[in-house]
């Protein structure tokens, strides 16, 4: 047994935003609310309810979730423009613990080709929008999009600038699922140790599964010091999906003695949550999927019991 008590990892569920964004996964407001209620029972720390500027229906879904959910932080996504931030704040301000989430690219390929901006312009825009969001809400998360393919020095400068502007959570995304676990862990370690002011912020990661490494990359980031994890139920999400909540949570549980990490998820609610998301999205879970697949379930219950014992 470990002598020190385990470190807390915060679970950020983005099933209703990144998961819902992928083609074929549309959820109406009632379905989103049902999933949010189940996520509350599951004990996640943060629920990302949606992308309010995207449609009046999504704005309304976010507003209903923010009004009803208690315990978990409720957040929603904004690009680094005032209209998006106003829409997020309009939708989530009635939450018990609201958080505004701002995303803006950090890789040159995105900055030049997608935004048609310079690095300096992106830094200035990001800082201005973080400060604006902070004037509305105490909790502001900044995600430098495509961090996995960015120049690390510019990424570090970005993180410093956004913390100075008022961001209290920095989320490092591997947007295209490109990184190897040791590269991604090293990137997170470097940013956390070299960015001035980083001890004032909570570090989070958001990994995609294009090469099947989302969970491995997330675990590498936790080993490097990140303490918040963005993930989705059944690993749904754009393209090959996101880090699967059930896999990362069961890893933390089953290997707690080795990892020295714990989270607040109620593991006995995992199967119910997985089934609800599969039903409401109309997308069944592959039978051999780790932890929640039909063939894996008996085994998962077994390892869970061992973990409890
Ligand atoms: Zn994503």
Key phrases:
309 residues, 16% strand, globular, alpha/beta, single chain, 13 helices, binds zinc ion, TIM Barrel, two-stranded parallel ribbon
Provide a descriptive summary of the structure in words:
The protein has one domain: TIM Barrel. The chain contains 13 helices and ten strands. It has helices at residues 15-21, 29-42, 56-68, 82-92, 108-115, 119-136, 152-165, 181-194, 214-224, 245-254, 256-259, 270-281, 297-308, and strands spanning 7-8, 10-13, 46-48, 73-79, 98-105, 140-145, 169-174, 202-207, 228-231, 261-262. The strands form two sheets. It has an eight-stranded parallel beta barrel with strand order 2-3-4-5-6-7-8-9, surrounded by ten helices. α2 (29-42) packs parallel to α3 and α7 (152-165) crosses α8 (181-194). The longest helix is centred in the middle third of the chain and has 18 residues, at 119-136. It is globular, with a radius of gyration of 18 Å. The mean pLDDT is 94. The structure holds zinc ion. Residues 18, 206, 208, 237-238, 242 line the site of zinc ion.
């Amino acid at each position: 047994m470990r002598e020190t008590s385990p470190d807390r990892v915060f679970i950020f569920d983005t099933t209703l935003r990144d998961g819902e964004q992928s083609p074929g996964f549309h959820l109406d407001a009632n379905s989103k609310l049902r999933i949010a209620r189940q996520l509350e029972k599951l004990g996640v720390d943060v629920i990302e309810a949606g992308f309010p500027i995207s449609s009046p229906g999504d704005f309304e879904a976010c507003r209903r979730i923010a009004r009803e959910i208690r315990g978990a932080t409720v957040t929603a996504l904004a690009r680094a423009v005032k209209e998006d931030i106003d829409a997020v704040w309009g939708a989530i301000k009635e939450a018990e613990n609201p958080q505004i989430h701002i995303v803006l690219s950090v890789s040159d390929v995105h900055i030049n080709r997608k935004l048609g901006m310079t690095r300096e312009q992106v830094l200035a825009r990001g800082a201005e929008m973080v400060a604006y969001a902070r004037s509305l809400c105490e909790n502001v998360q900044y995600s430098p999009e495509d961090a996995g393919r960015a120049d690390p020095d510019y990424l570090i400068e970005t993180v410093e600038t956004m913390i100075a502007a008022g961001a209290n959570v920095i989320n490092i995304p591997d947007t295209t699922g490109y990184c190897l676990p040791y590269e991604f862990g090293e990137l997170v370690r470097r940013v956390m140790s070299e960015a001035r002011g980083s001890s004032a912020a909570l570090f989070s990661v958001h990994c995609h599964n294009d090469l099947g490494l989302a969970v491995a990359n997330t675990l590498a980031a936790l080993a490097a010091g990140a303490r918040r994890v963005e993930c989705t139920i059944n690993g749904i999400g754009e393209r090959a999906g996101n880090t699967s909540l059930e896999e990362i949570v069961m890893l933390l549980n089953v290997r707690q003695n080795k990892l020295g990490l714990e989270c607040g998820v109620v593991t006995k609610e995992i199967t119910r949550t997985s089934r609800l998301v599969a039903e409401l999205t109309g997308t069944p879970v592959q039978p051999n999927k780790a932890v929640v697949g039909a063939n894996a379930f008996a085994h998962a219950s077994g390892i869970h019991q061992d973990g409890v014992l």
